[in-house]
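2 proteins. here.
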Amino acid sequence: MTITRHRRRASVVSAVAVATLAAGMAVPLALPAAAAGSTLQAAAAESNRYYGAAMAGSYLNNSQVTGILNREFNMITAENEMKMDATEPNQNQFSYGNGDRIVNWALQNGKKVRGHALAWHSQQPGWMQNMSGTQLRNAMLNHVTQVATHYKGKIHSWDVVNEAYADGNSGGRRDSNLQRTGNDWIEAAFRAARAADPGAKLCYNDYNTDNWSHAKTQGVYNMVKDFKARGVPIDCVGFQAHFNSGNPVPSNYHTTLGNFAALGVDVQITELDIEGSGTSQAEQFRGVHQACLSVARCTGITVWGVRDSESWRSSGTPLLFDGNGNKKAAYNYSLDALNQTSGTVRATPGGQDGGQQPTQQPTQQPTQQPTQQPTQQPTSNPTNAPAGSTLQAAAARTGRYYGAAMAGSYLNNSQITGILQREFNMITAENEMKMDATEPNQNQFNYTNGDRIVNWALQNGKQVRGHALAWHSQQPGWMQNMSGTQLRNAMLNHVTQVATHYKGKIHSWDVVNEAYADGNSGGRRDSNLQRTGNDWIEAAFRAARAADPGAKLCYNDYNTDNWSHAKTQGVYNMVKDFKARGVPIDCVGFQAHFNSGNPVPSNYHTTLGNFAALGVDVQITELDIEGSGTSQAEQFRGVHQACLSVARCTGITVWGVRDSESWRSSGTPLLFDGNGNKKAAYNYSLDALNAGGTTTDPGQQPTSNPTQDPGNGGTGSCTATYSEGEKWNDRFNGVVTIRANGNISSWTSTVTLQNPQRVIAAWSGSPTWPSANVMVMRPNDGGALSNGQTVSFGFTVQHGGNWTWPSVSCAAS
């Protein structure tokens, strides 16, 4: 699942529209009237399609679940039992027992099998996680060859490679250990799979590739197109299709399926589940089925589980059968869609599908993989020392500014401008000075809306933060279509022209915005600007300095608040390098968008202090914190205290004035409510500012340089280290790495969760449950490790609104 992260509100596709998303398509091979199938597999077979379900090994012990599987489904996918960590827990020691149980049950009961998955950046065994380069490439190819050979002749379709493309706007590959072995790793995996199992269909499988207009979809499409043109053996593309109210079935879903099919590959819906209930959920399921039924090369649908109670998203009740095995409205609507004849074409696997070329080109990519980083809230108490009666007056006591983001529309609202006048002395234009606003057509600059804000600020005695000169997002259309030297020159011209226009009027420029990638890589975001060369950020700063020598030049980003995170470290290393080489950088902006899933980290002051120790100012540039009451107020106080503890934290800007105008208005994230009243968050912030703070820079060097949270240290002669994995809106993955300190014969790890969290899946070990919130993991084998050797296991947590990391420990024997 994804979290939309835009300051401009995007329209949401209506779920109701999904029911008619296949309308208007020219579809060949319309089906004649036929007897309606009474089960999903029978109804799907009327149009030559399969109907499948994901199956966990535990289902074999539940007669109700196996009864439903036997009756309704004719394609089975092992949920975890055929993945990399399950089939090769130790290098070159393969374990097929659990996978074989599922495959054998399926074949004995007349089912086909989808193999999931041969190569994936996630759920790798610990030994593979510690590899890189040629060693990792060879190990991956050996895994593909050995597993595909073992199951040769038993698999209908293999997910050869799973989830290799990045979320966000880049349309590029995910930065994984496999990707870093070379860009041809996917091709190599497909060629190895074809050699090992020539009879199976070979598929690429991914999530968030459902909307034709999204960059990720286009990235996968371009890869498949390239593979088909060069004879790389790819037969099919799997669409995971995990939907919910925040990520509904897109209205162009049939376009996506049809356009991929037109490349000469089958398309398969591989992991379907849709959170919700009743008619709304049922309509979404019907829309997915209609989309598949309108494309002849959409050969089948697999739902990711059987009953809601066993789903990895069980709290969202996302499947066709409830926890008691009863058919839901979603089942009935799906069955009806499968049984319809109007708009349905007979599936023609490996055949033609109308030959149509893509009918739409992408326009924007509104989603990004969530990056919530759970930590702890600050615990300091407020101080009620009398001093400044407004935010700007209280901040000025320690030589700091206090700012707010301002939209042009605020100039028409006397209440908002009154608050701005009274409380703030630094103004940031919310959108009016960005690239698309100031240069809508190449070399035709439009400063009107930006000038209105800047002029109002200066006329009213405020300073201005300029936001933003160069950014991968909110580029004008003409720039989005550029690349290479042409794009580099256009970007530098933009920086020069805009900074020159506002020369002498700007306190600090966000020269470059959000150039680093989320996740564990610590590397740059794959954007069109990054692809002009790794020195593009340096070039932008040098151009800005030449154009406006008097302004402070800042780098600005989000999710750089926690010192232990790889993204923070990546930005830190860039700033350190820039300062060492004389690149003109004066400040670093921390956006500070927080909520319950991403609270203010307890090491926030460490982050600010360590950047300041490099010789740059630090500024909190876009502060908002979702919530209400004392809890929200405590978080705001913590941010202010962190800034006040660092002399070179020169100011704080909140991203808006009233909750009602915020880009996150439903989260009520600001200091004033929709009526302009001061909230508890305002009072706690004012108190913190009046309490004062550090007046001399401590000049400390970074106190640590971690790339992951160390979790809780283990006991005895082993250590357990927790690291976060992928995150969605309702759950997150965690990985625990066990390290032997001396030779050990076995180990036991205890994972303690916080209420209401619960583990809904675990892999690479044998878990037991002494209590509801405690999991004890033991190795599948003997567990012997030599000194310094490591092994890992993983699990998925349904967090229930609590993103706190589990605590972990280890005991050795």
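next one coming up
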Amino acid sequence: MPPAAPQAVVREMEMSAYLGWILLSAVLAIVIAAALYWRITRMDPGNDVMRELNRLIFEGANAFLKREYSYLVVFVIVVAAVIFFAGLGWQTALSFVCGALASGLAGWFGMRTATLANARTTQAALSGMPAALRVAFNSGSVLGLAVVGLGVLGIGALLWLFTVVLGARLDITLDQYILGFSLGASSIALFARVGGGIFTKAADVGADLAGKVEAGIPEDDPRNPAVIADNVGDNVGDVAGMGADLFESYVGSIISAMLLGFLALRGEVGDAALTAAMVPLMLAALGIVASIIGIGYTNLFTSSQPHAALRNGTFVAAALMALGGFLLVGFYFNVLGTWGIAWALVAGLVAGTAIGLLTEFYTSAEFNPTRSISESSRTGAATNIISGLSVGMVSTAAPVIMIGLAILVSFTACGGFANSAMGLFGIAVAAVGMLSTLGVTLAVDAYGPVADNAGGIAEQAHLPSEVRAITDRLDSVGNTTAAIGKGFAIGSAALTALAFFAAYSQKASVGGQPISIDLTEPVVVISLLIGAMLPFLFSSLTMSAVGHAAQEMINEVRRQFNEIPGLREGKQGVTGDSTRCVSISTAAAIKRMVLPGLLAIAAPIIVGLVFKYLELAANQGVNLPEVAGGAEAVGGLLAGALVSGVMLALFMANAGGAWDNAKKHIEQDGLALQMRNQHGEHWQDYMMQNLNPTELKRYDAYVTAERERVVAEGGSFDDAERLQSRTVFLGAQLGKGSDPHKAAVVGDTVGDPFKDTSGPSLNILIKLMSIVALVFAVLFN
């Protein structure tokens, strides 16, 4: 082999220098994640009952993932073969396999930690709120650090292999080979999110309707055989699925920014294009360090105020990331020639934080939107659902404006109105900024399912009510942080999809010119409408899957209540068959995740090829630059899916989160306090005027019974006794087990697949369609 040219040697040395400390940061994240995992395994899992419950949850979650992954292995092999034989290179196929493997591994690692942390969080709650919070948060930190560590490690290692070891050109590596890593991550994420979402919501909805609504037993009651399946679902859907989801968001934002950075500066002198391509990966490495510090801060200052502790750790990481971003851009200023990249990073950080705060406003019971849903529950399930839909719809406005502002600021700061390529690079950097501190934000998000399971174990193990009060409070905060995590994912999806769209327009060129999306072209309008329809079709498929699986679950719980003597009554020694319930959710999830997943992958390819060959047939086999064909049709498809998908995802995620917390607000006597605050000393008079006929009959019966009791005890049922009876009765009509609570349970049940199945899957749909189009762009011309 001839000696390498001096310029190639210099570039190889520069690439090695860039990747050295980047890979070191990834290894550091994985090492700390492993240390936290080991620390959790050394903690006390509680008494024998808690250990047994934890074992059932652990085994159920592992059984589901093994079965799901066994199907996904076949899928990965088939798609890798298609990529190879389609002429896209063995390098792209290898990257696809690595992306799929890393995505699955991140989800599995997080899920395994969460299943071990469930009972340990319950046991720690015996010592108080701070101890329980630390266990649950450190469990989430394992997932957060595993995701960012594996993401940066995978991208960095593949870059080193292709460019340094094999000597591939950087433009081909970024424009083709490394895209396979994002495609693999997105493919696994969609199936993991959809499959896990179907599993968890089938079990959750089935357990709620058959247990709380029909049988009238408390949530997480050990008599309900679907409770274990519900606990398993929290881990496979809200931990493993969410981990794979945000893994693909993270790597997609980095890879798209690297590609656009290279394209923006490829005509400049020196190695400006190489530096621009590596900046997003270096920012991700800085984000790992900032996340580790944020995690340490949260652990150090954990208090009895879980919300404040979690939020402050996130803010610390974001501030450090902004500072680090300016220092990094300043170091390479002579090469990049602009501070705009740093401001684009800040725009992404600010937009992500703002979306999180807006999500909290619309989904937390601390604020009026969710409280209005609780209040509307007093008039039944219909008004609860109407109110929740309204909150979900209005919640899309402010986040979309923030996303638009982030796009405008980042585009302008990087000089987009003078150089659109640099402006698009700035938008991609904003997406990286939004997810740069994912290590800590995902830790905050993933702690919620652990707290939820800890509460279930406390209930089933008959621990003191004080323990359940602590886990319920952690769970309530977890619902809000989970909604915030979904908001981050959706916001970053919009920015990343736009970045991929820009890269696609460059790659799918006709006659050497980037394609243009002309709305006067019928082909573009047709594909635009199809793209806008796909998120609705996708959501219908996933919602329907949850509905059918939940029906099977309800019928199974009914059967066990009817056929197992003493189960419904809670007879000592009588237990239900939880394994059967886990099997029902598993089978439904595996069977029904296939069609939505294939829809996302096949739609861009089918639309592109159909319109390509229509154009060729009409023009005697010639692809004319001035005529819209397959490439332009796919562009319209992506634009339509992006616009409707972002709106629908925000609406569903926020409505579902608000419904859930509205129910918990009632359970924690928040509605009763709310009525007292609104109507003051006249709250009882207001309530009496608005009791429905059934409640009035209950009131008369209750007062009569109280009068008879007092008289039988030799007392006199005077005005004071009557007022006391009325106060007790009215308070009961606003709390757990009341009619408003039952209405809120119905709303929460509707919202479950909104927030945990369909909504969070849509951001993956948007990005997966974009990356499929980008990888297979050469087929559409």
